[in-house]
Amino acid sequence: MFRGGGIIYAASFLITDLISEIHGKQAAIKTVYCGFIAMLIFAGYSLLILHWQSAPFYTQQAAFESVVGLSFRITMAGWISFMVSQYWDVIVFHRLKESDKNYISKHLWIRNCGSTITSQFIDSALFIFIAFYGIYDVWPMIFSQYIVKVIIALSDTPFAYWGRYVLNLNSSKAKDAQC
Fold it and tell me: Rounded to 5, what percent of the chain is helix, strand, coil?
């Protein structure tokens, strides 16, 4: 069930965390909205290419349509889970960053893991429940996908620190160039 796309998607939470860390909450929320718009555009293109007539020599149109064709239920599950979980990730990240507890607000790894681990559960539960409830037993699917996403969230912590360092370094260089 959990494929390469799921791993890449799970890592996208690191990107919004880094945008939150460097550019703030509003920039991260704007990024979530831009991601959602990109998903809508991709879905539109996918529907469009299914209606183009294939080349006369192409004999695999049915296979192409089965791969590219969108299941509305799965697409909606993706849209809903993306918006809810990514927005949750940004909100939790900033609540932890603005916490009165110094040990929470000063440590990127707590914000990164805390926001991502909770948002990954929301994402897994929403997506799988909406996409597959009534077709498969969803609880084992949710649990297994969530475990993989937690491992990814814990593993991406060094990349969070590296990303913050690189982004801060680039921001400093850009400010120096403006002077």
Answer: 85, 0, 15
pLDDT (tens digit, 9 = 90+) per residue, 58-83?
Answer: 888 887 777 666 567 888 888 899 99
**pLDDT (mean) for 109-129:** 92
What is the spatial distance between Cα 118 and Cα 92, in angstroms, rounded to a whole number?
9
Q: Give the residue from 140, 5, 46, 28 showing the smallest Cα distance to 93.
A: 28
* Number of continuous H segments (helices) and E segments (strands) in the chain: 8, 0
Measured between alpha carbons, how far is residue 137 from residues 24, 127, 177 in Å? 39, 13, 57
Please say whether the dihedral angle defined by the alpha carbons of residues 2, 20, 119 and 149, taken in this order, is positive or negative.
Answer: positive
pLDDT (mean) for 44-66: 81
Q: Which domain, by its residues, includes 58?
A: 4-178
Work out how many domains the chain is built from and give that number.
1
Give the three-state DSSP class for 84: helix
Q: How much is the pLDDT for 1?
A: 47
Whole-number Å distance between alpha carbons of 28 and 50: 33
Contact status, residue 2 vs residue 148, Cβ threshold 8 Å = yes
